[in-house]
Design a protein that fits this description.
Radius of gyration: 24 Å
Helix content: 40-55%
Number of helices: 16
Shape: globular
Number of strands: 12
Structural class: alpha/beta
Strand order of the largest sheet: 5-4-3-2-1-12
Distance between the termini: 15 Å
Order of helices and strands: HHHHHHHHHEHEHEEEEEHHEHEEEEHH
Amino acid sequence: MNWILALSSGLLLVALFPHFGIGLLAPFALSPLLIAIAREDRPLYRFLLGEVCGFVFWIGLCYWIRPVLAEYGGLNLPLSWLALILFAVAKGIHLAVFSFCAGYLIHRAWAIPALAALWVGIERTHGTFGFAWLTLGNAASEMSLPLRLAPFVGVYGVSFVMMLLNAGLALLLLRRPRKQLVWLMSLPLLFLLPELPELERGKLRATSLQPNLEEGTPPNLDRMASRSLINSVNGSSLVLWPEAPSGFYWDSDPVFRHMMSRLAQSAEVPFLFAGVTHTENGSPLNTAILLDETGKEKGRYSKTYLVPFGEFVPPLFSWIDKVSTEAGSFSPGDGPGVMSAGSLQLGTFICYESAFPHLVRQFPALGATVLVNLSNDGWFFRTAAREQHLLLARMRAVENRRWVLRSTNNGITTSIDPAGRVMEIFPEFREMAGQLEFSEVEETTFYSRHGDWFGWTSLVTGLGLTLFRMRASKQTGSDELVKPTR
């Protein structure tokens, strides 16, 4: 029964996100696993229960890794499945550690907040110890009440609320004393937090090109420039080109550099695009470059967080070819900075970096009044990864109370308001250019200014309580297992 419960939670976690996108399950998805943890007094078995749940979740959520590695990583069918399985096993360790530790907390009167803190703390480690993607809080992107926490403590506060509810349901089903559910009475305090910004149309316009380029297809720069110019004459404040599968070499291709400068001059507005630059030793950088209306370079930002298998190959996976066709592994940039485009202050993050809230929040903290996400989701084919990627960008908008302009190669190109609403969206897989609305916002949120203090504090609290209970259980010779009442 415990294995079935763990498997059920894994499947429910998968259902939270696209393709399925049943976010209403977020307050309940982990309750079966918590019940299994409470029923199991052997620490190793709790660890394995969490690994089963985590494996099912990650292999179901990121199933799209297999076709990407098969198509672009040079793997045959068995090896592509092996790579996906190894990935899911490795990522499942986070949930395994949670389950191991949760067994020492779940039988205490303060189990509900302790489990929530432990969950949030371990969620925060994904970006530090490997691949970061969706968190439990991302599933609540349509729940306006818990989203009120995001501008204060980031997505981790939303995850905390979801885990409070999961733990409360688990204890209720385990027939624990009702007084142990008193912690849930803190949830109405969410109503005291400021509401999300009301729906309001953007006052400015940006022209975004969606070139719909396939990997290996030479870009028609004249055609791309023409489409951009036609749409930029109608009052645009900015022209955007997305990250593209074929590298545009800004510092080593004088023809390309001259053409881009001429395009900025013709449009008579600032022009932001993604291209390849190089370090002093020749390593490639994935870089966003800003030109002013005269065609002169005004600033650049090189991608800080690189995509595993896409821009570099992790050491243990050297048998997999890098997905990108760029010679050599990319080097990370030097960190966030703000670029001035006329009166606009731009914070630009590239593709996969939308999965890192602690990175994106630094742009508004440095003075960015609008966020721009340049991305190429063409690697994902027509899988759910595209919608999953959009969920990440939506949460970054809420955390920082900023408009996000998302310019992509073949979709999903859109503008997102400070409440995380998708305001305008281009048809996917269509070559086109169009305008995206946005406004500038100068006020910074508490989260933008202070970062992940809540996530790290939760980690210290959750692990500290676990160590305390481990020591106590050794002294008593018992893990204080409480079987559910029949």
